């Protein structure tokens, strides 16, 4: 008897599996709130050079700005430079601010902002850009925050993939929760840019554990589900990601300070840690490790919650020992096994290309919410709302057209929407917005399908 037959006896989809989905909903909500957090965390509000105060007898601020700030080629006042000396304007006098008339009418030379910047706080009270003046010549450092975070995710995905097979899914999920909590609190308390970048990178490494263990059809759930219900369970569990996307819009709207926002996004790790008391370890993994008694205990719990009567012979320790002997592998698999045979090599290379397209389209649009004629909060909420019908599209399409056609169709739909958007004039804001929203829906559908599809392409030992 194999493990699939064993799972059939105790129930491959029932209250036990649904309880697991509910218990692991929190990390699915936390992931998009952290992955898309740079939309609010590193936002760059309107800014200009800090200037001397307007004289008491001066009534027109625009005229004052004209005297100090040069214009860019597009006609807008510069955000990054100011005149070395204020310029004399018709019918005005700026004498009395410490400059001689000769200086006022003199050079047109400009300089970087010597006294720092002033920021528009109408939309954000503070961000990392305003905290450490990561604008103008330093704007690359602000953009690099997201890059470092996802570098951490990359490292964490490799590490947690290996470690969860070595030490168990439940134990590594605890490590991910605790690490994300500690590093998130350290990020919120960062005293300088270097400390913040390091802690955010380590936060990304910790959160990668969630992507490996609890994302749709991840290790913590896939090994408790029968084949027939993996699609519906994967689509159902992925709706929590969409909930996190929309929740981030609300939290970002209510909390405009980046430190408090980061704190609020991090603290839910505490109830997540407590919930692990009820999260079961993978019985299949326990059997591969020879821990038959523990697997027996979890399987009995599964059968009891699913209302499945099991005979003494079906779940006896002797029967489980035979299943364990069949599940155990001669040698521990490694990442090199993904390329060991021509068939696996073909699958792995194709999946890499596919996942690049999926991630590039989804995050490329999700992290750039400008130019749609809406404010950042409205755009984030709209992008989250459009993900719900896209999941229904995935469920129906996978059932009737299959995974491969669904994956190809959703990626093609994303590409067409984004390509057409490039051809639309910047004045046609409504068309640009409609195409962006449609592209976001297709890209989310491609993301959901990729998780369902990839998990079924590899043998269990490599999954």
Side-by-side strand order of the widest sheet: 1-4
SS-derived structural category: mainly alpha
The value of Rg in angstroms is 28 Å
Distance between the termini: 21 Å
Number of helices: 22
Q: Kindly estimate the percentage of residues that lie in beta strands according to DSSP.
A: under 5%
Helical residue percent band: 55-70%
Overall average residue pLDDT: 81
Summarize the biggest pleated sheet: 2 strands, antiparallel
Number of strands: 4
Low-confidence stretches: 95-106
Report the order of strands and helices: HHHHEHEHEEHHHHHHHHHHHHHHHH
Describe the secondary-structure layout.
Blueprint: H1 3-10, H2 15-23, H3 25-35, H4 38-41, E1 47-49, H5 61-68, E2 81-83, H6 101-104, E3 110-112, E4 117-119, H7 128-131, H8 139-167, H9 169-188, H10 193-213, H11 219-222, H12 230-254, H13 258-266, H14 269-275, H15 283-288, H16 292-305, H17 317-327, H18 342-366, H19 376-385, H20 387-401, H21 403-423, H22 429-455
Antiparallel strand pairs: 1-4, 2-3
Helix pairs in contact: 3-10, 3-12, 8-9, 8-10, 9-10, 9-13, 9-14, 12-19, 12-20, 16-17, 18-22, 20-21, 20-22, 21-22
């Amino acid at each position: 008897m194999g493990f699939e037959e064993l799972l059939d006896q105790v129930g491959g989809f029932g209250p036990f599996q649904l309880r697991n989905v509910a218990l692991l909903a929190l990390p699915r909500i936390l992931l998009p709130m952290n992955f898309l957090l740079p939309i609010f965390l590193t936002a760059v509000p309107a800014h200009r050079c800090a200037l001397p105060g307007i004289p008491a007898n001066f009534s027109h601020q625009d005229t004052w700005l004209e005297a100090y700030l040069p214009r860019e080629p597009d006609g807008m006042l510069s955000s990054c430079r100011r005149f070395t000396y204020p310029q004399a304007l018709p019918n005005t006098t700026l004498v009395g601010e410490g400059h001689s008339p000769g200086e006022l009418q003199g050079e047109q030379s400009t300089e970087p902002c010597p006294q720092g910047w002033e920021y528009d706080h109408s939309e954000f009270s503070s961000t990392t850009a305003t905290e450490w003046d990561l604008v103008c010549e330093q704007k690359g450092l602000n953009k690099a925050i997201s890059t470092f975070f996802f570098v951490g995710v990359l490292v964490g995905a490799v590490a947690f993939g290996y470690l969860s097979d070595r030490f168990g899914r439940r134990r590594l999920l605890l490590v991910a929760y605790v690490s994300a909590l500690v590093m998130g609190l350290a990020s919120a308390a960062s005293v300088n840019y270097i400390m913040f970048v390091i802690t955010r990178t380590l936060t990304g490494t910790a959160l990668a554990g969630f992507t490996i263990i609890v994302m749709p059809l991840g290790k913590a759930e896939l090994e408790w589900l029968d084949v027939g219900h993996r699609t519906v369970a994967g689509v159902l569990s992925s709706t929590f990601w969409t909930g996190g996307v929309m929740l981030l819009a609300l939290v970002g709207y209510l909390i405009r300070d980046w430190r408090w926002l980061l704190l609020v996004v991090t603290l839910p790790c505490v109830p997540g840690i407590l919930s692990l008391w009820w999260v079961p370890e993978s019985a299949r993994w326990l059997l591969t490790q020879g821990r038959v008694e523990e697997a027996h205990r979890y399987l009995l719990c599964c059968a009891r919650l699913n209302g499945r009567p099991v005979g003494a012979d079906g779940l006896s320790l002797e029967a489980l020992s035979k299943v364990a002997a069949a599940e155990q592998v001669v040698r521990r698999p490694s990442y090199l096994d993904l390329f060991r045979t021509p068939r696996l090599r073909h699958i792995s290379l194709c999946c890499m290309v596919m996942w690049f397209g999926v991630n590039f389209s989804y995050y490329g649009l999700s992290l750039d919410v400008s130019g749609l004629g809406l404010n950042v909060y409205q755009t984030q909420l709209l992008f989250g709302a459009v993900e719900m019908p896209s999941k229904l599209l995935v469920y129906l399409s996978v059932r009737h057209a299959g995974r491969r056609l669904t994956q190809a169709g959703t990626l093609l739909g994303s590409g067409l929407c984004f390509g057409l958007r490039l051809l639309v004039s910047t004045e046609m804001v409504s068309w640009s917005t409609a195409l962006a929203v449609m592209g976001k829906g297709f890209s989310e559908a491609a993301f959901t399908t990729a998780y369902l599809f990839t998990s079924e392409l590899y043998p269990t030992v490599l999954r």
